[in-house]
């Protein structure tokens, strides 16, 4: 098992290096001049050249790359031209908000998607199955920006049950920062009024973000469950008198969870990358919003930083999935 | 006395894209406690589906019971509620399946699967559920009973770490966990190596004798059935065509299909006599032949055979479903 984990870790390191190369190349082929941007529209030619030297942008490409990598190794992701702060500081500030949203959505997606998928498989081709499948397809098909606005109109404007946007009401005192995730921090601090306010703000964006994820987990889990439920070992378990509920929830589910886990891992990375739309609609101050405003300004260091961060998360998610695979399936443990 | 297993006029069909396949067409079969009965027939004749029907393991739909009944210990299997069904499975009827590679759950250890089964039986029988440790001991004892060495260590192994023969023994041990009254073995040796086949067959034979089990053995192999069963039921295309004591059947088959089946077995003692296959094909069950389902392949067929389905009747000390049984003496 240890060798299995170490092998996967080494592979992750390699992938990370690949990602660093790609982000670097892409940011360098993009047709915009960061020095000119940093200098501002009224800058003279001399000023632009000074900045170019200052940032090391006049050096040959391989030298720039080595400096970039050396910086990364020390946790230096460069400086944002727009916010003028180091990108790492900005990320530390915006990432917890995104992480909070993604964690919530993923929890919703798994807690609803897996049981609904199981129920759908057990009731295959009956009315509840058709209904869940129809809803699942709809949830994937609805664009987040449109559906988000629709929900805002209904729950915030029309019914006035929930706030439209942001993470907290202006009047609500924020909790002392520990993780930067307000729900977690306020719960730890015991500030339940703040917690409730944060929940009411998070419900809609988390729902909108979770729908496509929920739907794909549901569909994969349903398909796998149907396959597993018709397998020989499930027939054998039934024949040996194992109670039906236990057959489905223990004997079958553990087998069906393997492909479902893969989808959960993929969706985790996908969610981090796709919070942009949801964060924009709900004015949620996360890395999506940060990356978009930087990209619009032609500010490359934040975009590269966000890309690396999302990529790293993707890899960690896949690593965790691989390890869980090994935990769930004894065949993988011995063959590696 | 009510027979242990009483199947009457059982008709089962499967609904599919191409239509309705009439898989079992009026099966009549009674098994008394203590009997050893073999069911023989070609692939696709419905013997496995019949075996699964006894423990109500056929998925409905696509399966659909068109008529008849299956009673086990006097109780109608299809009328059983959840509790009765839980008692039936494993405790009343236990099953051993064909392919030991696929009938063990790949992600659970042998021990945890067996413990699960043992504790499920406790619950079904209304006894206090044994602790995991106690169930583990019982599991080890069962593995010992099927002559597996080092049962304690085996409990922590996973199915993919075992050989085919070991897995089949594990499955047999699991089938014994509920002290079943009827053991249904569906092609238990077909997927095994020849040398292992003999061992597993001997094991089943010994267990049947030791525990006084009633055995229903299903196989396409007359040799396997002849080794373990006193009585043989021959099936063709979803019908029982002949039902006789093994000795009677081998000596004087009455149904033309049984005779064809026996002639198709190569005889090592008489190498000059070639094995003769039965001409023709298994019928399409979506549109089965009228009358006797064997008539298109039968050398003795007359017009009546295509018109009228023969019922099982007593002829020459056995039951046979053939209009011309009297003329079919070897």
3D structure, described in words:
The complex is a heterodimer of chains A (336) and B (330). Chain A is an all-alpha fold and 336 residues long. Chain A has two domains: 32-76, no CATH class; 92-335, MetI-like fold (Orthogonal Bundle), CATH 1.10.3720. In chain A, 77% of the residues lie in helices and 0% in strands. Chain A contains 14 helices and no strands. Chain A has helices at 2-29, 34-39, 45-54, 61-73, 87-122, 127-141, 144-158, 182-189, 192-229, 232-239, 244-281, 287-296, 300-328, 330-335. The radius of gyration of chain A is 24 Å and the shape is globular. The model of chain A has no long low-confidence stretch (mean pLDDT 85). With 330 residues, chain B is α/β, with parallel strands linked by helices. Chain B has a domain at 251-268 and 275-330. Chain B contains eleven helices and twelve strands. Chain B has helices spanning 47-54, 82-92, 110-124, 132-145, 151-154, 164-176, 194-211, 222-228, 246-251, 256-263, 303-307; strands at residues 5-16, 19-31, 36-40, 63-72, 75-76, 93-96, 182-186, 214-219, 231-236, 239-245, 313-315, 318-320. In chain B, a hairpin with a 2-residue loop joins strand 1 (5-16) and strand 2. Chain B is globular and about 65 Å long. The model of chain B has no long low-confidence stretch (mean pLDDT 86).
Count of alpha/pi helices of chain A: 14
What is the beta-strand fraction of chain A? under 5%
Number of helices of chain B: 11
> Could you tell me the number of beta strands of chain A?
0
Name the structural class of chain A: mainly alpha
Tell me how many strands of chain B there are: 12
From N to C, what is the helix and strand string of chain B? Answer: EEEHEEHEHHHHEHEHEEHHHEE
Oligomer kind? heterodimer
CATH C-level class of the largest domain in chain A: Mainly Alpha
């Amino acid at each position: 098992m240890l060798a299995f984990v170490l092998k996967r870790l080494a592979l992750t390191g390699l992938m990370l290096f690949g990602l660093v190369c790609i982000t670097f190349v892409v940011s360098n082929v993009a047709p915009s001049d960061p020095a000119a941007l940093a200098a501002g529209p009224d800058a003279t030619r001399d000023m632009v050249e000074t900045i170019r030297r200052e940032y090391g942008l006049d050096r040959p490409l391989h030298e720039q790359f080595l400096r970039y990598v050396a910086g990364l190794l020390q946790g230096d992701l460069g400086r944002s031209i727009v916010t003028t702060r180091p990108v790492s500081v900005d990320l530390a500030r915006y990432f917890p908000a995104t992480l909070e949203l993604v964690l919530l959505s993923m929890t919703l997606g798994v807690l609803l998607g897996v049981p609904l998928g199981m129920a759908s498989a057990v009731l295959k081709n009956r009315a509840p199955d058709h209904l869940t499948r129809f809803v699942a397809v709809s949830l994937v098909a609805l664009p987040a920006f449109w559906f988000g606005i629709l929900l805002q109109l209904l729950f915030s404007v029309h019914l006035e049950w929930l706030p439209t946007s942001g993470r907290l009401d202006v009047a609500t005192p924020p909790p002392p920062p520990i993780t930067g995730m307000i729900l977690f921090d306020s719960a730890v601090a015991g500030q339940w009024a703040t917690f409730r306010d944060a929940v009411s703000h998070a419900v809609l964006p988390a729902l909108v973000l979770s729908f496509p994820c929920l739907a794909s987990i549901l569909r994969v889990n349903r398909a796998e469950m149907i396959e597993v439920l018709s397998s020989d070992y499930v027939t054998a378990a039934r024949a040996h008198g194992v109670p039906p509920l236990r057959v489905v929830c223990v004997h079958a589910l553990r087998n069906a969870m393997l492909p479902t886990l893969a989808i959960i891992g993929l969706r985790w990375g996908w969610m981090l990358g796709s919070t942009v739309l949801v964060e924009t609609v709900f004015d949620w101050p996360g890395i999506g919003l940060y990356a978009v405003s930087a990209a619009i300004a032609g500010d490359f260091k934040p975009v590269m930083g966000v890309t690396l961060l999302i990529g790293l998360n993707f890899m960690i998610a896949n690593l965790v999935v691989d390890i869980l695979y090994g935990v769930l399936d004894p065949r993988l443990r011995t063959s590696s | 006395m009510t027979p242990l297993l009483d199947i009457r006029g059982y008709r089962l069909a499967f609904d599919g894209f191409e239509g309705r396949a009439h898989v079992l067409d009026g099966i009549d079969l009674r098994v008394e406690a203590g009997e050893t009965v073999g069911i023989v027939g070609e692939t696709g004749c419905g013997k496995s589906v019949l075996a699964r029907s006894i423990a109500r393991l056929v998925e409905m739909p696509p399966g659909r019971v068109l008529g008849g009944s299956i009673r086990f210990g006097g109780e109608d299997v299809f009328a059983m509620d959840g509790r009765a069904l839980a008692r039936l499975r494993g405790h009343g009827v236990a099953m051993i399946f064909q392919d030991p590679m696929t009938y063990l759950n790949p992600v659970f250890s042998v021990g945890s699967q067996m413990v699960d089964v043992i504790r499920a039986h406790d619950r079904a029988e209304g006894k206090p559920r044994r602790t995991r440790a106690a169930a583990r001991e019982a599991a080890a004892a069962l593995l010992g009973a099927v002559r597996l060495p080092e049962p304690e260590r085996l409990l922590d192994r996973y199915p993919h770490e075992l050989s085919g023969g070991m897995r089949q023994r594990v499955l047999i041990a699991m089938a014994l966990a509920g002290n079943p009254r009827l053991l249904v073995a569906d092609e238990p040796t077909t997927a095994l190596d020849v040398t292992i086949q003999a061992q597993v067959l001997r094991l089943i034979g010994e267990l049947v004798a030791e525990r006084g089990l009633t055995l229903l053995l299903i196989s396409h192999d007359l040799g396997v059935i002849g080794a373990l069963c006193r009585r043989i039921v021959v099936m063709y295309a979803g019908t029982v065509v002949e039902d006789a004591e093994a000795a009677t059947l081998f000596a004087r088959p009455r149904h033309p299909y049984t005779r064809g089946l026996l002639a198709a077995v190569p005889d090592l003692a008489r190498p000059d006599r070639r094995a003769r296959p039965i001409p023709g094909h298994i019928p399409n069950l979506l549109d089965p032949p009228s009358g006797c389902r064997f008539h298109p392949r039968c050398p003795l067929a007359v017009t009546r055979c295509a018109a009228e389905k023969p019922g099982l009747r007593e002829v020459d000390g056995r039951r046979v479903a053939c209009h011309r049984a009297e003329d079919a003496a070897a």
